[in-house]
Amino acid sequence: MRTTFLLSLFVLLFASCDKDDDSSPAGTPTPTDPVSISLNTIILEEFTNVSSNGSFWDSATNNPDPFIKVYKEGVLVFESVPISNAAPGPAYPLNTPSTGSMPVTINAGQSLRFELYDNDSETSYQYMTSINLTDAVSFIDNLDGAESFTDLIIYGPNDIALAISGDINY
Ligand SMILES: [Ca+2]
Known about the structure:
The protein is built from two helices and ten strands, in the order H-E-E-E-E-E-E-E-E-H-E-E. The protein is mostly beta strands and 170 residues long. The chain has a single domain (36-169), classed as C2 domain (Immunoglobulin-like, Sandwich), CATH 2.60.40.150. The strands form two sheets. Strands 1, 4, 6, 9 and 10 form a five-stranded antiparallel β-sheet that branches. It has a five-stranded antiparallel β-sheet with strand order 5-3-2-7-8, with no helix packed on it. Strand 7 (112-119) and strand 8 (125-133) form a beta hairpin. The structure holds calcium ion. Calcium ion binds at residues 57-58, 64, 118, 120, 126.
């Protein structure tokens, strides 16, 4: 305890001696830990019409019909309506809800999971990719005081990328 106290005192003295030399510009934001993020948009940024084993999601003449499921702490909080016959190339927003609504708020320490599926019929769908962020706030926050993130690219299996955007809340 005594050592800790002396060390603290030393740091304090050092810090006060150093104060006059502090060249940080006035108004520089002090990085702090965000309390949450709000996920505002998800875009299917990259995919091909075959999985990584070379099989077509649908067929050589039919493209997949992708939709996203979003889970917070393992609970489904958002599901998008499928994009019909999506051709690889363009980016497709996945923000029209069939379940839940945007934004989705994730608190510090909570997990966020994305699962992308190809809608094959009203009753069957096929796994395309998944991305799990164990601690989503820590993953997105880089302590630079930013208040938002825009088109942050995250990658999942089968060479699929999502672009996510939202707010960082302090
Ligand atoms: Ca399929």
